[in-house]
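Handover notes (outgoing to incoming on-call)

Open items:
1. Metalloendopeptidase: sequence verified, structure written out, both below. Nothing else pending on this one.
2. Nothing else urgent.
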Amino acid sequence: MDSALALILLCSLLDSVLPKSIKGVLSSTQTQGESEDYYSTIMNENKECRILLIQGDIAIKISRSSSNGLWKKSTDGKVYVPYKIGNEYNSDEVTAIVSAMNIYSTLTCIQFTPQTSENDFISISSSDGCWSYIGMQGGAQEVSIQKGGCVTQGIILHELNHAIGFAHEHCRNDRDNYVEIMYRYISPGDVINFDKMETNNIGLMYDYLSIMHYAPWMFSNTTGKNTIVPTPNPNVPIGMGSLLTNLDIAKINKLYGCDFCSSVSITPSGTITSPNYQNAQCVWLIQTPSGQVSMKFNAFAIQSSSDCTSNYIRIYDGPSRSSTVLLDKECGMNIPPPVISSTNQMLVEFISDNSQTGSGFTASYNTDFTDCDQLLFGSQFNLLLRPPRSI
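Metalloendopeptidase structure tokens:
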């Protein structure tokens, strides 16, 4: 009997005879935890900090760097930021730091690379809190990620974003167009934390959910009263999460002049469509609130080449290119089979050269699928029903 047919029959049998509790095991998922209160952690960890900080976590140097604060762009279009991680971290903590760095490598032109002989690099250590300087300072530039509370994805991304040149969103020079600072709930000694800065907004919008945005209650001296209120709609949610937002990503790429298209989707379902232009290098990071991600192609026409070397789509079972490959380089006219991730994260990569002739692809994703879907199209079976590639 054909293996695919046998699996379909087995799936139908299981669906009819297995109790729900057992079938639930077949579709067990890794859920994303509730959003953490990152700024409370930062403030708590920085209480005994030995160096001068402003706005809670920005370190200040007495002498200013002679550079413009940007890391140098390489001739290949990427921005390499050398780093060194202190020996005080255990393997899990190192993995957390490197994983956060990989988000930049996946979604932007910023490439964090281990320091070898470079004179300018960031030195990540468990110093005394969660803090960073803004932009490249020159030499061994400290970024403090204290063991314990600071070693979380949201905080690591926040401090790294300072290190590559970004200030807090609420301190943009145009912030009064977007938020009102409630000074009556701020003690005189804390007002400095809300001073506007001379920022380069690079023509992009204010981002209430930026990884760089303060929580609404920061430095409030009155319980239940917020210090930052969005305008004109005070109910707009604000404050950093655990991921770079699409605007964060766009700002990084525009600040460094990088031709890179990428986006993050955090909704339970959605659609992605490839851009119909040449020389595309695009990625979509899907991170649903919980469950697993199921992706189905609705249209597929990517120019064929030998082994799909020039134009292709590739799907990873996780948030970066180092994750397990769910669907390897795929091109041609045949619609690939659906794929299902093992967690709530999936990365889709699309590459095209300057001779692209296909119309690209459209795919939809969701977290609502059956046990049979998982058996047929989960990572261990996603190649089973693949049609022959058209060349």
